[in-house]
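User: Interleukin 1 receptor associated kinase 1 binding protein 1, Gopherus evgoodei:
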Amino acid sequence: MSLSALPLSPARVFAELLAAPLGARGRENEPVPGLLSGRSAAVPPGREVHVSGSAELCAAPDRARVSIRLGSRKGEAGEARSSVTRRLEYIAQSARQRGVQEENVTVTKDFSRVENAYQMEAEVCITFSDFGKMQNVCNLLIEKLGSSVIISPPHFYHTAEAVDTLRRQVCLAAVGNTRRKAQEVCRLFGQSLGKPLLIREEEMKEWEGQIDSHPSNSSNTLTVQQRIQSATIYASSKIFAIFEIKGREKRNKRI
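Assistant: Predicted structure for Interleukin 1 receptor associated kinase 1 binding protein 1:
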């Protein structure tokens, strides 16, 4: 196929230089119809540069929740309670020794009669902000308590503060990229960038990360790093801005 037969992709304009047409300025402090674009009506626009910019950032989860389940079935009620209580005390002590605060530990208990025996079940939910501590606690409990406890895979998530911080950072990064683009455009034409006349966020997107694994893999077989990657949040922001264009900067005359 010859090059002339290939379809041409449309050109992409990322900046636009505008100047107020001759005779467009009205009397002092008088609005000019069709030229204000939502800006202050007291000052007619002069030369402008219209640019758009974007940014994309990500944030790994800052919290992890682990559930530990245990139970006992005995012929005597006291024996069932005692068996579960001893393990609960050991779990709480292990978490405290590794810096886990008491408010991050939740314990629920359920006591029932099953046939001719008494059954007590308990669940401990621990929230970690340090994932290294989480792995140390889980490894210790598996080593010391073995099959008498069932530890669920960690659930990673973001606090509301972490999500808000990501949204602010990606918006500010997009604004910074937009301003730098406007400066480069002005510098290309030997001009200097003036103050912003309009800054508008046109688009904001968020999505969770994807893991590079076979679709048939069960979620229970994922590694810790794969779980963190899957829970990572990505955000992108697109900004449109209008800046004034100043004239050429005058160099100071040498005396």
